[in-house]
Amino acid sequence: AAKERGKNTYQFYTAHLMERSARKMELENDLRKALIKQELQVYYQPQIDLQTGVVIGMEALLRWPHEKYGFISPLEFIPIAEETGLIVPLGEWVLRRACQQNKQWQEEGMACIPVAVNLSARQMQEENFIDMIIRVLHETELKPQFLDLEITESMVQDIENSTVILHKLKDLGVKLSIDDFGTGYSSLSYLKHLPIDKIKIDKSFVDDIIHHENQGAIVKTIIDMGHNLQFKVIAEGIEKEEQVQFLMEYGCIMGQGYFFSPPLHSKEMKKFLSQDKEVLERT
Ligand code: C2E
Ligand code: MG
Ligand code: MG
Ligand code: MG
């Protein structure tokens, strides 16, 4: 019976794995087509000054409306794009869209605030990566200070010449942020010597503020150390008012999360920016 069970389990897993790789292959094909047919979209999530409620930036996040499966999470398709190398053209596409859009909003009289774009290791390892960034900035006519590039701790550590690349980016005048800070294996002191502007405290620590009895001791430490090292600090994944209160008490004055707004379609983001503009003009 044990043998029989073992066999069944084995069959179950093989079937499961085959199903998974079938979906993966399907998605890989579809993603390639979606990119060509311009079916992907860029959404924008506002970044907020916690003290005034004003929008101070935005993060560009890829959205893929799939005709059969509906919206597919970037957590599923970005790794596929990375494995296949499709992330290189895809990443350039997002960057160009985000820069174009930001430039357009500025021309339409919206607040001049930066757009953050997520990068993948694979992109940064491309030989012409820096040239690509220069070219996109040039083509879209976006001033470099309005581009904020998000990289992770592991990218800094795994990419051989990451320090050189980061310095080159810094010299262009773009901003650099460390995404999901605290989930990697690096320490803040490791980042001290890098030309980084900002750290983004990962959502898991922001969750801890209300779910753990230490009430965000780690968050407080990250905020203090970050500021001591002259980094700006922004909290990710804020969902509750209570978290905002604690973060401000701890000295963190920037945040992003569903509490303020989910990532928005560009039309919705423009409305968000317009409302903000009205408020600012009235005060
Ligand atoms: P990320 O860069 O850390 O982006 C933040 C993620 O948290 C986004 O998920 C956002 O929708 C989600 N989020 C924001 N506020 C909240 C909140 O209050 N609660 C919860 N539960 N979630 C919140 P999303 O858009 O699904 O993206 C997931 C990840 O996929 C991103 O994490 C990023 O690593 C990657 N990604 C997305 N777009 C791109 C892209 O254009 N290029 C690359 N390389 N990666 C991307
Ligand atoms: Mg990010
Ligand atoms: Mg993040
Ligand atoms: Mg991330």
Total count of helical runs of at least 4 residues: 12
Ligand set:
ligand C2E, magnesium ion
Low-pLDDT residue spans: none
Largest sheet: 8 strands, mixed, barrel
Chart the SSEs and their pairings:
Elements: H1 2-36, E1 41-49, E2 55-66, E3 70-72, H2 74-84, H3 87-107, E4 115-118, H4 121-124, H5 129-140, E5 147-152, H6 153-158, H7 162-172, E6 175-181, H8 188-191, E7 198-201, H9 203-211, H10 217-228, E8 232-235, H11 241-249, E9 254-255, H12 266-282
Parallel strand pairs: 2-4, 4-5, 5-6, 6-7, 7-8, 8-9
Antiparallel strand pairs: 1-2, 1-9, 2-3
The structure holds ligand C2E and magnesium ion (MG) (3 copies).
Index terms:
alpha/beta; 18% strand; single chain; EAL domain-containing protein; globular; binds magnesium ion; binds ligand C2E; 283 residues; 12 helices
How does this model look, in words?
- It comes from Ectobacillus antri.
- This is EAL domain-containing protein.
- Residues 24-277 form the EAL domain.
- The chain is an alpha/beta fold.
- 53% of the residues lie in helices and 18% in strands.
- The protein has an eight-stranded mixed beta barrel with strand order 1-2-4-5-6-7-8-9, surrounded by five helices.
- α1 packs across α2 (74-84) and α3 (87-107) packs parallel to α5.
- The termini are far apart.
- The relative contact order is 0.12.
- The mean pLDDT is 92.
- Ligand C2E is lined by residues 45, 61-62, 73-75, 78, 91, 94, 118-120, 150, 179-180, 237-239, 257-258, 263.
